[in-house]
């Protein structure tokens, strides 16, 4: 069952770009951000109530607010970038998140960053640069075609803040109710600017677009829970490999559903930062101590 949960979480995350792009044919990015959290809270709340008979929401904790702000920024910026860019663009969020978390471990938690960590960070940054560049002439990048890359990078920082909040909150809360509390606050945060920022329905109302919004809610509400439950029992090496298949699936779906152009720069850049993420996540084998003859 744990392997199934891991696979479900991986596949769910890989479809985010395609689903956001589909939903954007009907509503703008502000509504998409709200729907991802709103439906996520509903689905996660129902699941926890069915499982436990009750739900526990805690909004008075500092890290709930910090996590909510980070996740709200993550979704808002990611949705804007996906709406104006390609549906595979959010593959940049994970390597940026990885680098930010690495630096946070050293600066906030005073953890020593080994040489392997710095090399992994370099691979991640290099991969993001290659994907963001994508062979575009430098003058075009300077004139604004690199905007989506910047937005995804900022979204990655927001995602890293959310992960940091999870690390702190898991000391006192269970995974399900922690996410429910954070996502509820995120719903409120992204709802505030809607009356001013949003244009509401911007295209034809279709069942597919509504379905995309609902599925995005399912992914928000349950995928993080699935992943957290899976890593309790699945070997870490398997988690590292399967989890990073998200970016490969995301590229595949973007080509199959929208025929987004997949250039050699996208493939090479993705390979570079996946190597960096795997390098950081894989445990190094310990050298066995040499036995001295008696």
From TrEMBL:
<keyword id="KW-0812">Transmembrane</keyword>
<feature type="domain" description="EamA">
    <location>
        <begin position="150"/>
        <end position="281"/>
    </location>
</feature>
<keyword id="KW-0472">Membrane</keyword>
<feature type="transmembrane region" description="Helical">
    <location>
        <begin position="62"/>
        <end position="82"/>
    </location>
</feature>
<dbReference type="InterPro" id="IPR000620">
    <property type="entry name" value="EamA_dom"/>
</dbReference>
<feature type="transmembrane region" description="Helical">
    <location>
        <begin position="234"/>
        <end position="256"/>
    </location>
</feature>
<keyword id="KW-1133">Transmembrane helix</keyword>
<feature type="transmembrane region" description="Helical">
    <location>
        <begin position="176"/>
        <end position="196"/>
    </location>
</feature>
<dbReference type="InterPro" id="IPR050638">
    <property type="entry name" value="AA-Vitamin_Transporters"/>
</dbReference>
<comment type="similarity">
    <text>Belongs to the EamA transporter family.</text>
</comment>
<feature type="domain" description="EamA">
    <location>
        <begin position="3"/>
        <end position="131"/>
    </location>
</feature>
<feature type="transmembrane region" description="Helical">
    <location>
        <begin position="262"/>
        <end position="282"/>
    </location>
</feature>
<dbReference type="GO" id="GO:0016020">
    <property type="term" value="C:membrane"/>
</dbReference>
<feature type="transmembrane region" description="Helical">
    <location>
        <begin position="30"/>
        <end position="50"/>
    </location>
</feature>
<feature type="transmembrane region" description="Helical">
    <location>
        <begin position="88"/>
        <end position="108"/>
    </location>
</feature>
<dbReference type="InterPro" id="IPR037185">
    <property type="entry name" value="EmrE-like"/>
</dbReference>
<dbReference type="Pfam" id="PF00892">
    <property type="entry name" value="EamA"/>
</dbReference>
<feature type="transmembrane region" description="Helical">
    <location>
        <begin position="115"/>
        <end position="133"/>
    </location>
</feature>
<protein>
    <submittedName>
        <fullName>DMT family transporter</fullName>
    </submittedName>
</protein>
<feature type="transmembrane region" description="Helical">
    <location>
        <begin position="208"/>
        <end position="227"/>
    </location>
</feature>
<feature type="transmembrane region" description="Helical">
    <location>
        <begin position="145"/>
        <end position="164"/>
    </location>
</feature>
